[in-house]
Amino acid sequence: MQHEAHTHHDHSAHEGHEHHTQHQAHAEQHQGHEGHHGHHEADGKVSWGMAAKATLHCLTGCAIGEVLGMVIGTALGWGNMQTMILAIILAFFFGYALTLRGILSAGVDFKTAFKVALAADTLSIAVMEIIDNGIIALWPGAMDAHLDEPFFWIVLAIALAAAFVITTPVNKWMIGRGKGHAVVHQYHH
Predict the structure, then answer these.
(1) Can you give the C-alpha Rg of the chain in angstroms?
(2) If DSSP codes are grouped into helix, strand and coil, which group holds residue 40?
(3) Considering only CA atoms, which of 58, 93, 89, 61 is closest in space to residue 184?
C-alpha cells in the first residue's frame, strides 16, 4: 500500500518546472559572470574587498592630486584657501584620470569612458575630499603646517586614512546597486 502512494505523481506541481530551470540556469550564469569580475561574493552581496579596492583606487588619485596641489600652491605662495581649492580640483582630476585610463585601455571611446568615470567616481571622490579636507581644516595647526614639517604629513596620512575608512562603505553601497565601480568593471574583460 505504501508503494502505491509513491507511484501516484502530481504533474500539476511541475508545469512551470521548465521555465524555473531556465531561470535558475540564467541566474547561475549571471552569478558566475559576476564572480569572474570579482563584483560579488558567492552569495550575491558586494564584498568588502571589492569596496576597499575601489576606494583605494579613488584614494590614490585623490592623494596624488592633493599633494601636487599643495606643492604647487606652496611654490606659488598662495594662501591656504586657494591651495586647498587647487588640491581638491587636482584630486578630482587624478581620480577621474586613473579610472579613465583603465576604461580606455579596454577599447572604449573617450566620450563613453568619461561618462563612466564621472558616474563611477564622483560621489566617492566627493566624500573622500570632504572627510580629508575637513580633518585638515579642523585639526589645530594643520592648515598652517609647511610641507617640510612631519606634522603636516602625519595629519595628511590620518586624514586620508579616515577618508578611506568612511568612503569604503559608501562604495560598497554604490557597487551593490550597480553604480560606482560596478559600472567600471563592465568594461574590464
Answers:
(1) 24
(2) strand
(3) 58
pLDDT tens-digit readout, 88-123: 999 999 999 998 988 888 888 999 889 988 988 899
Residue 108 C-alpha from the chain's centroid:
19
Chain mean pLDDT for the chain = 78
Pull the grid cell for residue 84.
586647498
**CB of 157 closer than 8 Å to CB of 59:** no
Q: Which cell is 178 given?
A: 550597480
Rounded to two decimals, what is the model's pTM?
0.72
- Strand-pair partners of 40: 46
Q: What is the pLDDT of residues 142-151, one digit of tens each?
A: 999 999 999 9
DSSP state at residue 189: -
Q: DSSP string of 78-125?
A: --HHHHHHHHHHHHHHHHHHHHHHHHHTTT--HHHHHHHHHHHHHHHH
- Contact assessment for residue 152 and residue 112, using Cβ atoms and an 8 Å cutoff: no
